[in-house]
Amino acid sequence: MSLTDTDPSRPRRRPGPMSRLWSRWRDRRGRLASTHSPIPVPLTRWTTNHEETFSFDTHCRGDGYDFTIEVDLCWCVTGSGTADELRRRIDARHGEVIAGIKAAARPVGRRYAPYRPDDAEQPIADAIREAVDNTLAATPDEYGAVVTCTPRTRVDMDAALRELQRPLVTEQVRLEGRFDLSALWARRLGELRVVWRDFVREGLPEWESPYAVSLAQQPELAAKELFAMRKDRREEAQGLVDVVAAAAAGHERLDLLEFAVASDSALRKTYDLLGIPVPDPGPDSLFGAGDDFGRSTAP
Fold first, then answer.
1. N or C, where is the chain less crowded by C-beta within 10 Å?
2. Is 267 exposed, middle or buried (0-12, 13-18, 19+ CB in 10 A)?
3. What DSSP designation does 251 have?
4. 52 plus 123 within the same structural domain
5. Residue-number span of the structural domain to which 259 is assigned
6. Do 163 and 231 fall within a single domain?
7. What is the count of structural domains for the chain?
8. Residue 192 maps to a domain
């Protein structure tokens, strides 16, 4: 307060025109504030997500067993308000969405055998997704909130039917294992056939091959195999001498040309039998390297 308001000995001043004008404007502003509503503030839009999983049973073909259907629902609501208010928008649509899912799955499940959940899963999932979209689009939210829901569906067979089918599946697994093993054996035998074919082709012209294979399998019997090899070679050499002697004995009964042809043929067959390469004819030989024995290639 000023001195004029506190000192009674000094006279008070009367308010001037500006003071009275200020007082009138202040009173009018107060009356306007009491009669008019405040300026509205725009509300912010928020998004709330909610996930849940529920399952239910529906009939299969024949109505003897049921499919067990498990659905994951991912809810999303966008609108103005708090998280609890947006969650109530989901709760308001929850019942009709669940009812639409069950109604859509029932006729589709009855088209498939109870032991074929893999065939029924995708058609049932498509029907459930379409039912959810149609349900949410048919009745839009009256509060301006946008509610969406994405379902993920799984289909399983009845537990009792699974126990009945388990032995059949076990036998099927065994058969598949035997088939795979047989195919593996066929591939391995083909590879072994090629290896052994090359082995035989390389070792057959060599007379030492049987002894070398025996020594490779039983190296501790090296001395025994060497004695056997020497004995066999002696017997083969004796046989060769006997063939030559027989050919020489027939010299008296054959002329020179027949004797030469017979001797050459016998020696060639003996060489082939023993696996010994036939030597090239010398420069003085009357026989060539052709296929016809006894035909001279000399000019």
1. C
2. middle
3. G
4. yes
5. 219-299
6. no
7. 3
8. yes
Residue that wins the pLDDT comparison between 38 and 170: 170
pLDDT over 90 at 221, yes or no: no
Distance CA 294, CA 259 (A): 10
229 and 182 assigned to the same domain = no
The angle subtended at Cα 245 by Cα 243 and Cα 251, nearest 5°, is 110
Same-domain status, 129 and 52: yes
User: What are the pLDDT digits (tens) for 225-236?
Assistant: 777 777 777 777
User: Within a domain: residue 116?
Assistant: yes
CA–CA distances in Å: residue 138 to residues 96, 97, 287: 11, 11, 108
CA dist., res. 91 & res. 143, Å (int): 14
Task: Tell me the C-alpha distance between 9 and 61, whole Å.
Answer: 111
CA separation for the pair 189, 176 (Å, rounded)? 20
The pLDDT confidence band at residue 60, using thresholds 50, 70 and 90, is very high
pLDDT value at 104 more than 80: yes
Tell me the pLDDT tens digit for each residue of 116-163.
999 999 999 999 999 999 988 866 666 677 888 999 999 999 888 888
Q: What is the rounded CA–CA span in Å between residue 115 and residue 221?
A: 65
pLDDT of residue 105: 94
* 214 assigned to some structural domain: no
Last residue within a domain, chosen from 120, 137, 157 = 157
16 domain-assigned: no
